[in-house]
Amino acid sequence: MKLWLDGGLLDIESARVSVLDHGLTVGDGVFETVKAVGGRPFALTRHLDRLTRSARGLGLPEPDLDEVRRACAAVLDANPMPLGRLRITYTGGISPLGSDRGEHGPTLVVALGETSRRPDSTAVITVPWTRNERGALTGLKTTSYAENVVALARAREQGASEALFANTVGQLCEGTGSNVFVVLDGEIHTPPIASGCLAGITRALTVEWTGAKETDLPLDVLERAEEIFLTSTLRDVQAVHRVDARELPGAPGPVTAKAMRIFDERAWDDLDPQDPG
Ligand code: PLP
After folding, report:
1. Contact predicate 7/67, CB 8 Å
2. Looking at ligand 1, which atom is closest to the CA of residue 231?
3. What is the pTM of this model?
4. I want to staple 28 with a disulfide (CB 3.0 to 4.6 A). Which of 73, 92, 148, 275 is the partner?
5. For residue 91, what are the β-bridge partners?
6. Cα of 201 from ligand 1 centre, angstroms
7. CA 35 – ligand 1 centroid, Å
8. Residue 255 and residue 183: Cα distance in Å, rounded?
């Protein structure tokens, strides 16, 4: 398996990042996970836009997107696989202990892992911890994901694949790595970006293609929604069949099933033909 580091391809076993990398020592980095089907990255331009926005938000130098594109293409070429997940990581780079970001410049790693299509439905839990809708990192896809790791571990303990957060004012926000949608009176709703959720790429496409409304939703909407579904790069549109102790028999329900179908049909065709992803 080959990955991209320091401007070229390397065997994954011999690729080394410094122990003084600010991404490792303080989580000073940003990342993207991009799906690749048959070696073709999905929505790469949107992912690179978000990488740039996240880097700006952290005050990192702008990533060289030509290099990132070259890196993605090289890694995909070197590791053919039917369904892959590209992981682009961009950090503050080497910084001597106790100092601010160093002068060595940022670190860019592009790696690829194999993945598989997710089941049509899944179980989720809610967690008592909150997302801060007004934090310095709100809306940025940073490598400071430890809170998500903790929440996801709790979900796994309870036989679920995702944990959902409310924000500090008790509104439904998002999952550890997904956005959430609910169906109320047959209409699809999802929390607005102001709730503190990440501007998910799958979320944006789903809103555009299904006409879902962006609505402030109390957390307890999960107790009465007719249907619930998640969106993310690796899940696409995925129905929820259990939330905490509540079962949603028959998931995916009709509205979710339609959203799944629309996503599957339009996902590749509707994207910019100039963009290989
Ligand atoms: N929310 C969080 C916290 C995430 O990490 C992700 C995954 O990237 C998402 C939502 C879903 O975003 P996307 O559809 O771009 O994968």
Report:
1. yes
2. 14
3. 0.96
4. 92
5. 29, 107
6. 7
7. 12
8. 7
Residue matched to tokens 């929440």? 151
* String of DSSP letters for 213-250: EE---BGGGGGT-SEEEEEETTTEEEEEEEETTEE-TT
pLDDT, one tens digit per residue, over 73-126 is 999 999 999 999 999 999 999 998 888 887 789 999 999 999 999 999 999 999
Task: Return all residues near 134 (Cβ < 8 A) that are at least 6 apart.
Answer: 168, 196
Q: How far is the CA of 99 from the centre of ligand 1 (A)?
A: 31
ipTM summary value: 0.99
Nearest CA to ligand 1 atom 5: 177
Q: What is the rounded distance in angstroms from the CA atom of residue 163 to the CA atom of residue 176? A: 6
- Taking the centre of ligand 1 as the mean of its atom positions, its distance from the CA of residue 144, in whole angstroms, is 14
| Ligand 1: lining residues by beta carbon, under 6 Å | 33, 174, 177-179, 198, 200-203, 231-233
**Separation of alpha carbons 38 and 263, rounded Å:** 18
For residue 195, the one-letter residue type is S
Nearest CA to ligand 1 atom 8: 177
Residue 43, token pair as written in the block? 């929505």
Residue 103 exposed, middle or buried by CB count within 10 Å (0-12, 13-18, 19+) = exposed
Q: Do the beta carbons of residue 21 and residue 94 sit within 8 Å?
A: yes
Q: How far apart are CA 12 and CA 18, in angstroms?
A: 15
